[in-house]
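Known limitations

Files may contain more than one protein. Parsers should not assume a single record per file. Below, a two-record file is shown to illustrate correct handling: read the sequence, read the token line, then continue until end of file.
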Amino acid sequence: MHDKSDTEKELVGIIVGGGPAPGINGIISAATIEAINNGKRVVGIIGGFKSLFEGQQNILPLTINDVSRIHAKGGSILRTSRDTPENAQAKFKTLLATLKSIGIKYLITIGGDGTLHMANWIEREARGSISVVHTPKTIDNDIPLPGGFSTFGYQTARHVGVYIINNIIEDARTT
């Protein structure tokens, strides 16, 4: 038995949609390390769905060395976008064609409800050629999760918001 060359390994793509939320880089790191340890290659799709809607193959090969220390950094090393195309059907076809031309076999999406809908659409329209896993990330906490768990990003936003409001109330009280 021989090890597969990099070009023979199945390709995992990771993409971030929607706004930033705490924990994105931790997901990118963990998913990349796990995929590589299971014999896959991994690429990050830079700039969220916007680049795919435009037919751009804007990808970043990811290695364990690249991601092993990013979990504590804010934002997203892959950037993100909130773009919704005006001509959805034509843009979705471009997006799917771009994913296929990159060679994506597995796609990990990180985002809120809009990204979740996009992940469902890709899974359905790819008809088995691309498997999709969605990681719910939203400060809105508008994706129902089993057991009443909140989406990552929500608790941090809530705690920071409460802290800021309490400070504003205290400032108003003392002025």
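...continuing to the second record:
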Amino acid sequence: MGSFRRNAFYWPVWSFAVVFVLLSQRCHGSCSEKELEKREEEANIVLTGTVEEILNMDPVHNTYSCKVRVWRYLKGKTTVNGEVLLDGGNKVMIGGFGDPDICDNQVATGDTRIFFVNLAPEYMWPNHKNELMLNSSLMRITLRNLEEVEHCVEGKNTFLTQHKAVTHVCWRYRDLRVRKLLWW
């Protein structure tokens, strides 16, 4: 009888562990991010900023744009001209959020992130003229992330690998799933 109670107690623990492992494996295969060095090379502008407003929802592509208050340019400040700057020069419009080709690209008002962006190409004008377009996944603002991006911009070697980038996205996905499970 005692072993039955012990097994009944461990059943939820084991089931949670199995669900966690399955979600982790699923996440690893769902989205693979490029290495940080490659992401930095492909972006003409790298900046830190806070999302102030979400607007311009595109119902066809399910993407949206955001007005972002810029705190710091890590790369490409000279590329951002007066036409791109908004509200006195410290805000920009960034589009491409919700793009299924970019792994971590969802934001909410008040989120502060590292943005890898390019100027919108001419074929996207006039809808996205004077707008920056998201080029790759967003990064959370941490001291480590800032240092790694700065090292990439300066051309120094960094130790971030593709595995770590994917793991970052997966842990975020797992945390959201766990919160949902605990909430309900």
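Parsers that stop after the first record will miss the second one. For reference, the second record is described as follows. Residues 25-29 have pLDDT under 50 and may be disordered.
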